Amino acid sequence: MESANLTENGTCLRGEEMVDARSSLLFLGTGCSSAVPNVMCLIQPYDPPCQVCSQALSIPPEHNLNYRCNTSLLIDYLNDDGEHKYILIDVGKTFREQVLRWFTRHKIPRVDSIILTHEHADAVFGLDDVRVVQPFSPTNDIEPTPIHLSQFAMERSKGDGVVDFPSGKPRNSNEFLGYQKLECTPLSEERAPFSQRAREIPRAGHSRQQNISYCLEFPANIK
């Protein structure tokens, strides 16, 4: 796999300030819950038709900034021993398409851990397709993929038939930090259905990256 620093819509972005070329971030989606194009705009067009959704079908998705899947981020972290770890942030309704488009293009072989920032459909309804990115076993003897989320998100997800937590406990974000220098820290506690959902990803010796997948306002402590 070609190492890069940041990718947007599947295209590598590089900057002089990004010294470490071993690990990478891949933006699998930066769109809204309905994704773009919105199917309704195409099968029940307005008069005049929606220019954004119409344009989203005019050129290939990888070259089209108006073609966007549900918000999702993949961290390709390279350990000091040379081993890649793949951490997926949010698994929305368009996850299968994201795997077909970007995992195949960037040769991503699997997902090692998952972080769910919140419990909405555009963050969790692709979990059923995670089976295709788990290690292959002819006997189906596969360890469950670790999922990290807040207590609030876990309670809201129960009973939907989408998320199963045999232990009854969510994994604390700090328990997730077993990848040497990689850390992932919630920016705030989630105590209401519409609080911010964000994670801060420090890069050892370099700038910090923040992933904010859903936000109505920024609390004073993180402004």
From TrEMBL:
InterPro entries: Metallo-B-lactamas (IPR001279), RibonucZ/Hydroxyglut_hydro (IPR036866). It comes from the Eukaryota. SUPFAM superfamilies: Metallo-hydrolase/oxidoreductase. This is Metallo-beta-lactamase domain-containing protein. It comes from Stephania japonica. Residues 86-176 form the Metallo-beta-lactamase domain. Pfam families: Lactamase_B_2.
